[in-house]
Amino acid sequence: PVQYKEPEPVFTPPSNSPFEQSASPVEWTPPPAPDAGWQNQAIGSNTPFQPPPGGTGTQSKGLAIGSLVSGILSCLCCVSIITGPIALVLGFIAKKKIAEDPSSYTGDGLALGGMITGGIGTLIGLAAIIIQIFFGGLSMLAR
Fold first, then answer.
1. Of 22, 109, 120, 132, which is least surrounded by CB within 10 A?
2. Burial of 40 by CB count in 10 Å (0-12 exposed, 13-18 middle, 19+ buried)?
3. Is the pLDDT of residue 132 over 60?
4. What one-character-per-residue DSSP string does the chain give?
């Protein structure tokens, strides 16, 4: 014969559990309306949105960028004997202007990069001319 076994009791949480308590409605009040006078403030040092001071917004990097572009072209192109010295001159002029007036001129690193690549390009161009003259002269002697 089969004996009937009673099921084990299931755990029920106590009635004071936060899960079974009914949520009491919480009174919500919206925040107060903002003061309308904040829009009429004069521009001063304490406002979050203010224009930049006059004269500092115009920073020039043209010479430094020109120096860098000419220097890169002198390293990559066959006209390095022309663009290399241009990069060197533009870089030196840019560095001089940056040293004299740093608030108006920026791009110190760009100018330095242009001077370095311009110098390398000039050396490459001079080496290419010397090699052409040397090997071109040897080929003429061999005839």
1. 22
2. exposed
3. yes
4. -PPP-PPPPPP---TT-TTTSPPPPPP--PPPPPPGGGGGPPP-TT-SS-PPPTTSS--B-HHHHHHHHHHHHHHHSTTHHHHHHHHHHHHHHHHHHHHH-TTTB--HHHHHHHHHHHHHHHHHHHHHHHHHHHHHHHHHHH-
Count CB atoms within 10 A of the CB of residue 102: 11
Q: In this predicted model, what pLDDT tens digit does every residue of 60-102 receive, in sequence order?
A: 889 999 999 999 999 988 778 899 999 999 999 999 999 998 8
**Structure pTM?**
0.56
Instruction: Locate 73 and state its tokens.
Output: 């072209």
Query: Amino acid letter at 50?
Result: Q
